[in-house]
Amino acid sequence: MALAMAMAMALAMALAMALAMAMAMALAMAMAMAMAMAMAMADMTRPKAPKHGRIDKSELPHGVEKQMRDKDYRESLRDMPCILTGFRGTDYETVDPMHIGTAGKSLKTHDYECLPVRHSLHELGHNGGEISMLRKYAPDWLLREAFRAFAKQFWKSNTGIE
């Protein structure tokens, strides 16, 4: 009797673990699908870069708005703390205005997609990959706010409710 009870408990635990693993896999797949959808949505609005040469900005695809530029705003970012580390610029290292992503070869995104980032991290983003750098240095509070903003926009676009 005790052996049968122990076997039943072991089977129940195995089933519970299998269910937990299945739920984790389903969550991972849902997150991957959401990221793929977000990347596809972003990719649809970005002009494609030619293999050689620069983009003719007069021929941007329909729906791609002219890049907003504000030199005073970019300069003001140099006086702000780095959004990733809180570092304030010094004589030895500055805080740079960093555009998040690009709109194609030789095209930066709008200045409203620009954030204050420590110069060494900005360079690391250029040399080692922006996403890799952000994954390593973005604090939890910033990731949470970014995902909240994305979720809010995703909800608005799918429900039509403001």
What does this entry look like structurally?
This protein is mainly alpha-helical. It has a domain of 96 residues. 54% of the residues lie in helices and 9% in strands. The protein is built from 5 helices and 4 strands; from the N terminus they run ααββββααα. The strands form 2 sheets. A two-stranded antiparallel ribbon has the order 1-4. Strand 2 and strand 3 form a beta hairpin. The longest helix has 43 residues. The protein is elongated and about 80 Å long. The N and C termini lie far apart (61 Å). 9% of the residues are buried. The mean pLDDT is 75.
Lay out the secondary structure.
Layout: H1 2-44, H2 71-77, E1 95-99, E2 102-104, E3 107-108, E4 114-118, H3 119-128, H4 130-137, H5 140-159
Helix pairs in contact: 3-4
Structural class designation: mainly alpha
Q: What's the number of extended β-strand segments?
A: 4
What is the rounded distance between the termini? 61 Å
Overall mean pLDDT score?
75
**Envelope shape:** elongated
**Are there runs of 5+ residues with pLDDT below 50, and where?**
none
Helix count from the secondary structure assignment:
5
Integer-rounded radius of gyration? 23 Å
Strand content: 5-15%
The string of secondary-structure elements, in order, is: HHEEEEHHH
Give a quick account of the main beta sheet: strands, pairing sense, barrel closure.
2 strands, antiparallel
Helix content: 40-55%
Task: Give the oligomeric state of the chains in this entry, treating copies of one chain as homo and distinct chains as hetero.
Answer: single chain
Biggest sheet strand order reads 1-4
